[in-house]
């Protein structure tokens, strides 16, 4: 086991920080070397996924390394598109639907609430905000089972709604939205809008929302990730595999690999495709996820 | 229930300097309503319903087939049943061991990497930040699948290389470190970015003062930087504890291949199997409520403990200032 975890970089910190002066370049090498080690740890499993997705069943299970002669990515993609009448891409569309619509609405709901908490004063405001913050601490998986039973009484178990509706709630998003509003929405601008006779909701919609847009994108990004990666909720709520998101679909395929090893390349290639949208989003939107984590860190 | 959600803004729309008011409820109520309705429906009501369910159990009446099931009030019966079940207690024991191994390792590692990245010596900071953060873009289920393959002899190049080098490693025989490693991989970079952001927010004068006082990089890191980002460390610690208690995905994936991971390996898996394999909703609800209670208690301990220490700290500081 210990062989799989990287060397903890502490040793290198110690080496770099010895009071007696070591040559400048030495400690620079140590610091960056430790960072490279940590990066290898995070990237190598993804690198394996990349090469493994080009292997066929025999090469994958046999552990043969990838060469020009046995490059089967095209074949794997073809199998992925045809197995079970192309169910994989249906899952993919479902995931896009759950995560796209869910995150969009959730971000809007969070920004509305965060804006209200920032701009207005009303009795019991901080108490209410405290309740919202407590909601952050509730283990979501402990809610999934009672939610399933409630949903079954409302006859929405095994429908899109069962996964979509709970995904719209994110108390931490409200907290983030309030922090962002405090940073992006100056009171004077709102006063000016009111002077011009704009109604409260109009002021929010045409001015407040625009100003807090970077925060909106941040909340959208994190909620999109959370819904895309969610496994427990769809597992509890859905039994019809045509409604599955990618995560649950891959899980159901993986359960078959024991009996049918030909599912291995499907799971591997499917996993690679499933992480692509998020990897691309995180590479393109670096400013936004960093802003989100910064706002979360300075409480 | 919906009545209570409109209360906060309902009575007095006390918007400062409002000229136009939108109906008797006011703008804040309109803006807060969607969140509060959904929060009530998807958080508050399920909590209440779980507590309610946990007090009942289903009894079959009649003989065998065709008998109707009736709900019987059992008080704390489901709770004593859960707590009396060795499998449930084992789940908590596994989670406790997991927390003891995972939390210090992950926090230490992410702090160490953040400090390294914050040092003047680090190069390519943007690249390192992105590369270390990327595992967060990988769904937990896929992270668990990839690592499970990397643990499996025959598929994993790592295990095969080690085996051919003469070292026999049996990762799947040791589920605890195997799961801890997956979690460390998933969360170290994410929390590192939080710590790094906090470190970057430290005023540069403070650090210069430390250097002028003759503090080396290590002294600065442990004596100045880490104390200054304590709030972030506590917050990450809190979320990590709550997340760890909900452990589910990774052990579920390993359950298929590692004989040591039984289907009730964590309290969450216990609740799931009680609900969906045994259809014992009362027991499942009781174990969910117990899990939430433990989470609440631990959050309370973490925040209270650190707040006391903060108060002592500021007291000391004001005393020395005098």
From TrEMBL, chain A:
It is a multi-pass membrane protein. GO terms for cellular component: plasma membrane. The chain crosses the membrane at residues 30-50, 96-116, 128-149, 161-186, 207-228, 263-285. Pfam families: BPD_transp_1. It is found in: Cell membrane. Keywords: Cell membrane, Membrane, Transmembrane, Transmembrane helix, Transport. The keyword Electron transport does not apply. It comes from the Bacteria. Residues 92-285 form the ABC transmembrane type-1 domain. SUPFAM superfamilies: MetI-like (SSF161098). One of its GO terms (biological process) is transmembrane transport. InterPro entries: MetI-like, MetI-like_sf. Belongs to the binding-protein-dependent transport system permease family. PANTHER family: ABC TRANSPORTER PERMEASE PROTEIN MG189-RELATED, ABC TRANSPORTER PERMEASE PROTEIN MG189-RELATED-RELATED. This is Sugar ABC transporter permease. It comes from Kitasatospora cheerisanensis KCTC 2395.
Automatic annotation (TrEMBL), chain B:
Pfam families: BPD_transp_1 (PF00528). SUPFAM superfamilies: MetI-like. CDD domains: TM_PBP2. Keywords: Cell membrane, Membrane, Transmembrane, Transmembrane helix, Transport. One of its GO terms (biological process) is transmembrane transport. Belongs to the binding-protein-dependent transport system permease family. This is ABC transmembrane type-1 domain-containing protein. The lineage of its organism: Bacteria, Bacillati, Actinomycetota, Actinomycetes, Kitasatosporales.
């Amino acid at each position: 086991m210990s062989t799989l975890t990287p060397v903890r970089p502490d040793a290198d910190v110690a080496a770099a920080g010895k009071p007696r002066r070591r040559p400048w370049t030495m400690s620079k090498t140590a610091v960056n070397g430790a960072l490279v080690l940590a990066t290898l740890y995070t990237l190598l499993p993804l690198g394996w996924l990349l090469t493994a997705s080009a292997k066929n069943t025999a090469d994958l299970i046999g552990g043969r390394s990838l060469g020009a002669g046995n490059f089967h990515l095209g074949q794997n993609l073809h199998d992925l598109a045809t197995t079970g009448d192309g169910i994989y891409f249906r899952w993919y569309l479902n995931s896009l639907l759950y995560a796209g619509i869910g995150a969009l609405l959730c971000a809007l709901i969070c920004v509305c609430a965060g804006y209200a908490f920032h701009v207005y004063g009303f009795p019991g405001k901080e108490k209410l905000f405290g309740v919202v913050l407590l909601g952050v601490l509730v283990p979501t998986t402990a809610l999934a089972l009672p939610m399933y039973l409630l949903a079954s009484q409302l006859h929405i178990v095994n429908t899109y709604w069962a996964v979509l509706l709970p995904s719209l709630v994110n108390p931490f998003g409200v907290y983030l939205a309030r922090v962002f509003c405090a940073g992006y929405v100056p009171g004077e601008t709102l006063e000016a809008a009111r002077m011009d006779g704009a109604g409260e909701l109009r002021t929010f919609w045409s001015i407040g929302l625009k100003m807090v847009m970077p925060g909106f994108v941040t909340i959208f990004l994190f909620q999109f990730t959370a819904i895309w990666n969610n496994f427990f909720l769809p597992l509890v709520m859905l039994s019809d595999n045509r409604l599955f998101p990618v995560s649950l679909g891959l899980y159901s395929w993986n359960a078959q690999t024991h009996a049918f090893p030909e599912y291995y390349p499907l799971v591997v290639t499917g996993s690679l495709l499933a992480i692509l949208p998020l990897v691309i989003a995180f590479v393109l939107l670096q400013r936004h996820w960093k802003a989100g984590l910064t706002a979360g860190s300075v409480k | 229930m919906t009545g209570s959600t409109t209360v906060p803004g309902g009575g007095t729309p006390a918007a400062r300097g409002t000229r136009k008011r939108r109906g008797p409820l006011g703008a804040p109520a309109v803006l807060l309503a969607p969140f509060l309705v959904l929060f009530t429906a998807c958080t508050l009501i399920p909590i209440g319903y779980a507590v309610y369910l946990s007090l009942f159990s289903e009894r079959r009446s009649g003989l065998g087939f065709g008998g109707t099931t009736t709900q019987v009030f059992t008080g704390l019966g489901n709770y004593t049943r859960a707590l009396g079940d060795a499998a449930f207690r084992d789940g908590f024991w596994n989670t406790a061991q997991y927390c003891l191994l995972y939390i210090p390792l992950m926090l230490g590692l992410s702090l160490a990497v953040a400090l390294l990245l914050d040092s003047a010596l680090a190069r390519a900071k943007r690249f390192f930040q992105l590369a270390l953060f990327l595992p967060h873009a990988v769904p937990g289920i896929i992270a668990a699948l990839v690592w499970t393959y990397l643990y499996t002899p025959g598929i994993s190049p790592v295990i095969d290389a080690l085996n051919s080098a003469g070292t026999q490693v049996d990762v799947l025989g040791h589920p605890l470190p195997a799961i801890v490693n997956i979690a460390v991989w998933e969360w170290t970079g994410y929390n590192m970015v939080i710590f790094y952001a906090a470190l970057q927010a430290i005023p540069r004068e403070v650090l210069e003062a430390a250097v002028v006082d003759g503090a080396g990089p290590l002294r600065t890191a442990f004596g100045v930087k880490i104390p200054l980002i304590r709030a972030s460390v506590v917050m990450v610690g809190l979320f990590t504890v709550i997340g760890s208690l909900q452990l589910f995905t990774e052990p579920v994936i390993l359950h298929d291949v590692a004989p040591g991971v039984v289907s009730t390996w964590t309290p969450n898996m216990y609740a799931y199997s009680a609900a969906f394999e045994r259809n014992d909703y009362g027991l499942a609800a009781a174990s969910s409520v117990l899990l939430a209670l433990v989470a609440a208690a631990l959050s309370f301990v973490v925040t209270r403990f650190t707040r006391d220490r903060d108060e002592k700290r500021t007291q000391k500081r004001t005393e020395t200032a005098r």
